[in-house]
Amino acid sequence: MTSAAPHETPSATAADGTPAVLYICAERTGSSTLATERATEEGHAFAERHALRITVTITDPYGEPVPQKRTGWMRVREMAERGEAAAAIVRWPNALSPQHELRYPELDHLRAHGCRVHFSWAPLAVMTSAEATR
Question: What is the DSSP string of 55-117?
Fold first, then answer.
């Protein structure tokens, strides 16, 4: 299943800080936007607390378990590969994939390009990406 085109929104945040992409994969087709709103609010609050500068917000519809089949996630990977994002803010690990074994290659790929994944959901925000996903 290939997902629909991602929604990408440039973000207007402080010019200082580490460049980051806010990745949201929360909304199901036809459902409420509450999950997307919460992920956006949490992501911006997390960025502010950790001196991260959100340069773009990318959203994908939830449901595709393979991250590389989502056009939005592929954009996150491309930004990391080009050095445009040193951080990716994601609400929780299931936004990467509900199948934990599919998360690890993505975390490793971003890390290999100097991009760390941070989880903005409060219980996970205090942990590192490796601790939260393994």
Answer: EEEEEE-TT---GGG-HHHHHHHHHHHTTS-SEEEESSGGGT-SSHHHHHHHHHHHHHTT-EE
56, two tokens: 């773009």
- Regions of the chain where pLDDT drops below 50: 1-4, 12-14, 128-134
Beta-ladder partners of 23: 58, 90
Fold adopted by 7-133: Rossmann fold (3.40.50)
- Distance, in Å, from the CA atom of 61 to the CA atom of 64, rounded to the nearest integer, reads 8
* Helical axes 71-81 vs 100-112, angle rounded to 10°: 30
Do residues 42 and 91 touch, judged by C-beta distance below 8 A?
A: yes
Q: How many CA atoms lie less than 13 Å away from 40 in the CB half-sphere?
A: 16
- Per domain, the residue ranges of the chain are 7-133
Predicted local distance difference test score (pLDDT) of residue 128: 46
pTM of the entire structure? Answer: 0.81
Summarize pLDDT for 20-37 with one digit per residue, the tens: 999 999 866 655 588 889
